[in-house]
Structure formats: structure tokens, C-alpha cells
């Protein structure tokens, strides 16, 4: 087990390098360091000297991947790619091109993101499982059919529409919650309420339908039929056996996304003015702050890989028959 | 479901209902904390997080919103008087330059520019002005600075400036102003006006080079955030004469310089702060000049979270400026002089909240959670009506809320430029001129203003906006190449006239005779992500299609757009200019030949070049505002109106909506430090907010009932199911 | 006037040809005919298929581009003209006769007045009469189509015409013909209604620059269709190629493929798309001569978006195929084929590919609606289709400002929502039906 984790972590290194190379290549296809300098120096009175100075200060005056002026190993180390990536691997995200420390910002913005993402995930899970169980219990009846159709209808509505109309109706017309904003601590509750509800409603369609299939698959298995044949009440079968066993694929599926919750929701956050990591990423893309973009991609990759490893481990925890080698 | 749970669930839901019913009459959507309900706090918004709050670097209006309240340059604009007028802020008087010739001999007042070798400005500041409490100025009993030698362990515990327990203050001195001017040359700061000042201030250029050298050496010894003590490096043109007096020497004559003295670039900076912020490790925690200013102004920044909110609180050490006691005619009747002579500022705290989307900003304003509408886009659209005389006023709904409307024309111009280096639209030939004139007629900016600005702008007749010296209103100021004066107003010439001009230019019906196909012109624009962008491009295409010309919109990211402008790789492009100071020179230089973008890297983006215009400009720029100057400006206008190097777009009007609890105010196109004049009535605000924000609960009840109803067939089905099993 | 083939048009033609080819191929294989028959019996599936076909017809018409006088217009534009060229000045509500905004007009004596100006392209007609006309017209058209369709059905089933009609009316046919004919009537009626009314009114109002919103939503159909289909078309070669080779050969190939898809899928998709779209824009900015017209430029951006959406979404299918091939490899008949010395390429094409085909088809139809929805989100982030291209995403994006106006401009959002919702709903329902037909185990 321990060896396995070590191996997986080591395996992550080439992936991280690959991701890094790709983001570098993609980003510099789009942005020359000159562009970045001008974007950060503002609009009026920008001189070429100022641009050059900015590049030197922020370390963007080196060649991208290969430095032909140097020899030997320095050809690779005295480059933008090497210098900017090395610190990433040491979890030093450095300073954003706008001059703020990224690690500090990430630490600060992580919490609002979680304040939205965690309730959406867990309350959403509860709601979805409830609906799915209802549909599975009344399978093939009109309740089931209309439930599935309702799910498809909910799935067919763009998430943007949920957000726009939710904000418009509940925030503006009914005046039940603040339209946007955020506050720290428990005061965050009223701000988080609407985005969380919208996040859950937006996920009901796909979630319940997916869990329904899992339940039905489980209900078709022999042990369920045996239990039923023994005269166990349908409700008991459902709660005692089906739910317990169906939770395994559901929970292991969720384990994979838990680390990614830190990254927040891109659209929800920027619509509701929540200072989380999702809106941080969008702003960085729009302002072309490469340092932040790179840091977020790196973080995202690590969390993704963590999710994969955690999934594997959770499989062994819930089902001892599976042994990782 | 187990029946034992039923009572619990019932009582729980009953509890929730009672709780909700209990809050029924309270405003549920108040985004602020309960305890601030009646506090004397002003709520405002910011849409973009500021890049920097360092007065040496900041050069955009969204940053000036903050730093103008904190830093105090020697001069400021008078709040009420128009045309814009400079008055002392920390200075004792607006300085009058002394002119010297090459030999250093003083010249009589207002000499011709060619005789002047140097102008000397001597600025005397008021004694007894103190800095805001700041840890950089904190001293212990032995008179040592407490926080100037932080250990790395200390640094680690510091996350914001508020984590320093002790603060101190000291008196403002002339040396602080000198220190800041020196900072403009600091190699690590890249001040946007460094190159401009190199041309103006005596010795600035060499000083800048010296600093760069010194900084490089220093950086080798101490790579992490070294402190370059600017006091050790003398700058010939700027020196402190005594504790309260300093002197700036400029090359030649530059009467516009006093306007610079009202900008934050020339605010004071205590050396202690520079020393304090230059400690290793602080930068990692975002504790820098960029985020934690130190000033003498009415407000100080107490909370800085550019991700969410910025809080300005009253500076306890503020020197107690008074509300102005004279104003324009009519100001008194409006009630603007009610508080004359009272101590500033009135509002004890200003909270700026980050709002990126216009929907929430506008709605929160309507709900009373923002005191003034800060929306610049089209959101207040139908909020405004125009009455018979053409005066703008509010719709009945907004009037009923007691909202006031302020409008003023901003000292800016948005225009469509032609690249004069281009061989189709540019150049000095009669053909190109006619083509440009035709396009100028076809672009119906009246329509643009009504669609995209909802009437919040006036079509430009030339470079100068109203309120700037040299602007001519009415018939005499109309651009005769685009407009005709009819029935007492300027009317755009008809599209047929434009077509005629186009035919004369050699493109009958927009057909390029060389190819036999429609003439294609390229239009470069910036992608801003504004949802209106698409509509704007479509509108532009529609305008030129009237002439049969095909417009090809090339939209790019801002920095790439700049690059194109710099290399002259454009035909048509949109640009705007907001005045640095209210002087015609600051607009007319936009077409000055030696200021061209491609050749000289200046601000003349069209690369327009006309010998006569340049000659007149040289003559005009150093003159005081007298009839002679006005005449020169008229001649320059005639030249550029004929040449049409740009389609004279529009001057935006600033419309501001303000709630009834705000004391009446007056919009100001130049000054940013007007927050100190604002006053509000928190009691009235709290009351109105409650009445406006009665929550509507019935849809929630309806939804719950619907859910219960939807459960009924489920329950029936369940009983049926159980019954049949047995 | 001559035909212009844009890049996306070309791909659409290829797509249509390959779909027809696939249908022809599968109709000759019994094990494929069975699922199609199952699909034809599914009510929801057939109803949504019909709706989708209407969308597809509009999309295809909009993919035939003609150039005249330097302007590129599609066959659809010509068909519905002058809908696309009748501009008002700015917003007007559905069926309005005047603009939504007041405008200052100058009277002859120099006086100003603030009024709601009359719309330019609206004729006041009796709406009830128009509905009546549309009803009569649609009954006629419907009857003709139905009669023809029944004739064909009767020929195929080798039954008499009367017998067929009888069964259809009683709802006894295996294919839900009765339901479909009712649906057909509704569709024909709606189309005729739109045809009759749209020439007199702006039935969904006009947008900020006075463009007819109804026209805009119809034009958005092509964008939605293209994104949903071309992205999968782009991704299929990657997913299939990498997936089955990795699963079949294992070893080092498997490692490389796994590395590629783990790396790609760990980058946040938005960033990947943003970078690709931005770099294309720069390429266009630097090489304006390659794409001389706005239409071509918007087209290439749409294509690029499809490609990059394909690149970001192939990893899931690839993983599925890899797993499935892994299982298939151990199957007896493949082991046997190997033992007989059949070449590996042949095994892949003859035995593996046909046996994973249902997975591919299911994932293609399932992905379709997700991609259409993704377009809207990307437009919001600012890396969607070109602002010039009409798309539901751009319309929803613009609605952010429109909802903030007083009074609210609600119709562009509503129009985009209705058309997009019906489209995605039909696609989702069809996807379900296809999955049930192809993979009866799940249900």
C-alpha cells in the first residue's frame, strides 16, 4: 500500500512536467513577454525602456526553452521555463505579474471557494440520492418515468440560465438574499445560500439520473432478489442492501472530485462576486497574468492526481477484496 | 420512513417556518452586517482590482479613486469653481514660476518662451500637517524606529499592516516631497512619467542613470528587496530649501507644470516608509507600497483586500481642511454651500466593494445598498428621460425614490483614428482627405450616442471638450466638413454628400476601381469582453456599409492592439483620451507631429503631421489663456477639421445617480479627491432601505406546498405497493 | 453568384456523407438493424428525432454559402430574407410597433420631442387572421406530406395503403406514426405561423443594434449543431486510435497513451481552450490575407473551437475504449484469430472496432448536448465563438446587460433559452433512446 502511494506520487512528476511544458508553450504562443509587460504597465506613456526593465525585473528576459548563448547544462537552466518551473515544484508560486504573492492569495481565496463547493457537493449528494432512490423504488411506474423526464429537462437547461434567472428572480424580484457579495465567517451564510441552491438545482438532473442507474443495476443483482424472496420488505431491501452497496461506486466517484473542490466554480463565483479561486482563474486569464495561470494549472494538476490516488485507496478501503499492487 | 422520526421532523420544519416568519419584516438581502445599520459609512464599488496604489506608479482613474483620498500633493482643484481652478492643498499658495535665462538671470514676468532657459517653482507647504498613524513611523522611547529591522521570525507573523501593534506619526516636511520626486526615477518602479520628467526637470535624466547604477550594485549585495536610500543621491533640479520649502527647476518654459503638482505623482513620501517596506520578506505577504499607502490625506486605507473590499477610514491626524466657502453662481441656491467652513471629511468610513458585473451593481444601488451609482455602461438607460427642452431628467420611478441625477461632460474624447501613414486612408492627398471626410459623415455618432450611451455624450466637433479653454460652443464651433448649421442646431450632412465625396475620392459607390470590388477597410479594436462589443462592431460595419465600403473588424487583445498602433499596422482604430490636466495643450498635442506614435513613440496615434499645425502648436503651448491663444486654437482646429485625421467621436457625459440621503454634491471632471466633501444621513438611509427591501415570501410557500402536493402521488403509490405485496 | 465552401461547411458535408454511409452500412448488417428497429419504436426517441431533423435542416441550409457582390450569404439567409437585413435602430419588444427606447426627434421648427419612434419594418396586420391563414396552409401541407409518407411506408411494409392508414390512425403501428403525425402537424403549423408573422412583425423583437432576434436564434442553430457534431468528429480519430491500440497492444504504447491523456485531462479545460482560441486570434491578426472576410474569420474560429473542444474531450472516450478493448483482447474469438495468424491491424478493424462501436455511438450522442451547453459557458468566459458569429452563448452573454436595464429587456434571453432548451432536450432524449436501443442491458 505505502509503496503503491510512493510509486503513484513519483509517477505524477512526469505528468506535472508535461503539463508545465504544455502551459508554457500554449501561453507563450499567445503572449510575448513584451505583451505582458505592456499589459501590466498600464495605458499611458509606456516607453520601450520601461518594458525592458519590467521584463528584467520579473525574469521574462530569458529565452523560452533553450538558451543558445550558454553552453552545456546552462543551455537548459538559464531559460524562462527552467527558472519559472523549478520554484513551482517547491510549491513556491512566486509573485504574480501584478506584484502580489500568489501563495498568499491562494490561501486566502481557497475558503470562499470551499464555502460554495462543499455544500453544493454534499447537500447535492443527499438530494440526488433521495431522488434517485424514489425513482428506483417506483421503477417503471409513471413516477419513475416522469422523474427521469424531469431529470432530462433539468439537464437541458444551460447552467448560465440557472444562474442568471436565479439571481434575477430570487435576488432582485423576491429580495430574499443579497444579490452578490461575500463576508467572512458565519456572515457568509446569506451570500452563499443562493449560489449553493443554484449549484444544487443545476446538478440534480444529471446526478439523480446517474445514481438511479446505479441503484437499478444494484437492484438487479442476485443477492437483492434473494433478500426479496426471503420476504424482506422492499423498503428494507432498498435501505439495508441496495443503498449500502450502491454507495460504493457513488462515494468512490466523489473522492476523485473532492480535491478539485478547492479550485472553485468558475461561473458561480464570478456571477455572485465571491472572491474564490474560480474567479481568480478567470480574472487571470482575462488579465493575462501568466504567473497566476501557471500556478493554478499546477495546483489543479496536483489536486487531480491526488483525486486519482485517493480513489484507488478508497476502493481498497470499501472493498477489501481489491488489492493494490 | 420510520414513524418515530415524524414528530422530530414536524417540529423542526415548524421551527424553521417560525424563524423565517420572524424575519419577514426585516430586509433579508442586506449585504452588510446588522451593527452597521445606522453607521456613518459610505458604500461604493470598484470594478477592477487596482494594479498598484503606489503614487509613483499609479496612472489610472480606478486607482486614483483610492489614492487621491490618501495622498496629498501640494495642489488640488477647487471643488466648486468652474472652469477648473487650482488651489493650494498642503501648499501655502499656488506657486508662480520664476523664469531664468541661460545665464541664470531672472527674467520679467511672462517672457517669450525662447528666452527662458529655466523655470523655478518654489513651493511652501503649511506647517503642522501630520501623517496618518503608520508602523513605519513608530518609534520607541529611545527614539529608534521599532519596525525598521524586522527579524525573519517577526515577518512571518505579519499578514497585513494591521498586525503591527504600534504606530507612529510625524510632521510632513518638504524633504518628503523631494523624496517622492526622486522615487519617480527609481529603476525598480518604472514610473510612467519618468521619461516625461526626464525631459522637463533639470538633472532628472542623469539622476535616473545614477540611480540605476547604484541599484544594480545594491542588488548584487542584497538581492531581496534592497533599500535604495534616495536621500543619499542628490537631484540637481529638486531640492528642499528648509523644513517647509522646496524648489523644482525645469528646463525651459512649461506653464502646465502646476497641473502636475495636483497629481498623486507629486505627493509626499516619508523616507521611513520606503525603508520600512524595503525589508526582506514583507513583499511575500503583499505588504508593499502597492497595497498599503501612507499619506496625510483625510482618509487612510485600513483594510486592503483587493479580492473583495477596500476600506478607507478617517485619518485621525488629518490637518482639518475646511469645506470651501465660495462657489459658482447658483451653487448656494442648490445648497452646495450649506456646509461652508465646516471641517472635512464628513463620512467616517468608506467601504469599497468589488463588483464586476453590472447587474448586481445596478440592482444593489436601486435597493439602496450603494449610495451612488457607479455604473458607466448602459445600465441606467431608461432611468433617464429627456424633457421638452432637451434637459435630462429621471424617470418617475426613480424620482419617487428621491434619487438625484448629476451630469457633467468629462474632459475626454473618444474618437476613431485614421492611420495617416496608411496608403489608402492616410496621407495628405486630396483623394485620401475626401475619403476620410466621407467616412466622417457616414459614421453617425448621434446614433452611436443614443444606442450605446443612451444619450450620455455629445458629438465632438474637434479635439476639445467643453470646459477646456478654446472650446467654442454653438454655430461657430461646428465642424463644417461634417455638419451643417440648420434650424439653430448642427445637423449631420446627408449620406448622399458623403457618397459624392467618396466618388470624388475615386470610389464611386464604394467600389474600388482597381479591383472592381467594394473597398475593404480594416478596423482595429480591442476585445474587452464587454457583451456590447458585438453590437458595437455590427454598428460600425453598418455605418460604412451605407457608403458601400466593407469594414473588416480585427479585434485583438489590448496589448496586441497597442503593438499594432506602435508599428503603424492599422487603418482605422478606436482610441480615447482623458485629460491629464484641463489645458488645451493636453488635447492638441494628440495631433502634434513630433509626438507621433510610430516615429517618436508619443501619443499622436494617428501619426498626423502638418507643418503649419505643428508651428501653431509650438506657439500656442506656452501661452496663457488669452484671446490670442483662443485665436491660434481656432486656426489649428480649422486645419485638423479639414484634414480629418480622425473622426471626432464624442465627449462622454458623466451621469451619476445619488440617493436622497446623500447631501447634494457636484461632479468634478478633474479632481478625484472629492470623497472628503461627501456627507450622508445614515438614519434616513436605514429607514428607506427597510421600506424598499420588503422580502417577498409567498413564492417560497407556494414552492413548499407544490412539493408536498407532488409527494402525494408518491405516498399513494407507496401504500398501494405495500398493500398489493401482502 | 457562386458557391463558397467554408471550412466548417466542408466538414459538415463530410459528416453528412459519413452518416448516410453509416446508415447504409448498418442497414445491411442484421445485428445493427435490430437496435435501429428498437429505436424506431421508442416514442420519445422518434419525437425528438423529428425535432432534431427540423434543426438539422435549418443548419444544413445555413451551411450552403453563396457569394454575390462580395457578400457571403447562406441559402438559409436567402430563404428567409428579408428577415436578416431588416434592421431597426435598437431594441423593440416582440410584436411591438414602436421602439423600446425613447428617442429625441427634431420637429421642423427646431423643437425637440422625445417619442418612441415607429419601427421601420413592421406592418400592422390582424394577428388572428394570420393565425387562421397559417392553420389552413399548414393543414394542406400536412395532409400532403402525410399522404406521401404513408405511401412510402405502405410500399416498404408491402401493405395496402388503406390498411397502413388504418393502423396508423388506430395507433397500432410499431413505429409511433400517429404520434409523429400529430407532432408533424404542430411543427408545420409553427413554421407556417412564423412564416406568416415574421414578414410583418419582429416576432421575438429586436436586439441592441436592431437585428431581428428570431433570425438570430435561427442562425444560432448552425453554431450549436456544429459545435455538437464537429467536436466529436475531431475527437473520434484520437479517441478510437489511441484507445483501442493502447488497450490491445498494452505495454509501452499503453503507458504513452495513458501519460498523454492523464496530462491532458489534468489541465483545466477552460485554460486549454482559452490559450488555443487566443493563439488562433493572434495568428489571424498576423496573417489577415489568409482569411480576407469576416465570415471566413469567424468560421475558422468556430472550427478552432470545435477542434479544441474535441481535443479536451477525447480523453474520456479513450479511457472507456481502452478498458473495453482490454476485455475484448481476452475473448475467445480474438484469441482464435490471433492463433490463426490474422494480422493485428485486421483484428483491430474486423473484430475489435465493430465490437466497441456501440460505446462510441453512445458516447457521441451523449456528448452532443453537453458540448452545445458548453458553448454558452465559454462565451461567458470570453473564449467562445467569435463575437460576430450568432450563437445562443453570445445571446445569453449579452442578456447579462439586458437584464440590468430598466425596464428589463427579456426577449433575447427568452428566445435563446427556448430554442436552445428544445434543441438540447431533444438531443438528450434521443441520446437516451439510442443508448437504450444499443445497450439494452442498462435500463
General description of the model:
The complex is a heterotrimer of chains A (325), B (726) and C (443). Chain A is mainly α and 325 residues long. Chain A is built from 14 helices and no strands. Helix content of chain A is 73%, strand content 0%. Chain B is 31% helix and 17% strand. In chain B, strands 13, 14, 15, 20, 21, 22 and 23 form a seven-stranded mixed β-sheet that branches. In chain B, strands 1-10-9-8 form a four-stranded mixed β-sheet, with helices on one face. In chain B, helix 12 packs antiparallel against helix 14 (495-504) and helix 19 (611-621) runs antiparallel to helix 20. Chain C is mainly alpha-helical. In chain C, the strands form two sheets. In chain C, strands 1-2-3 form a three-stranded antiparallel β-sheet. In chain C, strand 2 (65-68) and strand 3 (71-74) form a beta hairpin. The longest helix of chain C has 38 residues, at 344-381. The model of chain C has no long low-confidence stretch (mean pLDDT 85). The chains are: A mainly alpha (325), B alpha+beta (726), C mainly alpha (443). Chains A and B meet through helix 2, helix 3, helix 6, helix 8 and helix 12 of A and helix 5, helix 10, helix 16 and helix 22 of B.
Describe the structure in brief.
Chain A contains 14 helices and no strands. Chain A has helices spanning about 1-30, 35-40, 50-60, 75, 80-90, 100-135, 140-155, 160-175, 190-220, 220-230, 235-255, 265-270, 275-285, 290-320. Chain C has a domain at about 215-440: Orthogonal Bundle (MetI-like fold).
